[in-house]
Design the sequence.
């Protein structure tokens, strides 16, 4: 997930990271691998995921008794850990003023459809950080494939690494 073999085809990307960013990137890579290993590959933890489940890909429609939610943009869909699929939307919620309530409501709704042991929530900050680290690879892939097409790669990576650190700092908020 965090190597030159990433589906983003980032090529040699480590030179795009500062020394301190490389250390944090490696920390996220190692912790993510450990989390995935602990979750295992069984059907209760691993299967087909959206892989880009963000608020921007949610579509709300007024229904008779409230709202119906649909999800769009399945081009990143693939095999992965169900818990990782929660990381993007948790990241979206994480800087909202009422994050605790949003997180609780979302996870309650999730649990109405799929089991999610409470102790697994402690992994979400690392997986949220992993999502941002993955975007560094995406940006590097643009540079090494066909150019960044107007993306300021250095600024994008700097932003994503700030977000990686912010997510990691949220660990105490997720402890059971």
Sequence:
């Amino acid at each position: 997930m965090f190597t030159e073999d990433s589906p983003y085809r980032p090529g040699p990307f480590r030179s795009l990271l500062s020394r301190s960013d490389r250390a944090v990137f490696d920390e996220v890579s190692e912790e993510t691998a450990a989390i995935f290993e602990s979750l295992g590959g069984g059907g209760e933890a691993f299967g087909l995921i959206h892989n880009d489940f963000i608020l921007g890909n949610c579509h709300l429609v007024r229904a008779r008794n409230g709202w119906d939610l649909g999800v769009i943009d399945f081009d990143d869909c693939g095999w992965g850990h169900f818990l990782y699929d929660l990381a993007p939307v948790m990241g979206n919620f994480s800087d909202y003023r009422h994050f605790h309530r949003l997180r609780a409501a979302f996870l309650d709704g999730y649990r109405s459809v799929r089991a999610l042991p409470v102790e697994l929530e402690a992994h979400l900050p690392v997986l949220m950080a992993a999502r941002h680290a993955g975007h560094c690879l995406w940006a590097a892939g643009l540079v090494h494939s066909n150019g960044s097409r107007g993306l300021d790669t250095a600024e994008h990576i700097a932003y994503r690494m700030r977000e990686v650190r912010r997510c990691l700092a949220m660990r105490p908020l997720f402890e059971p």
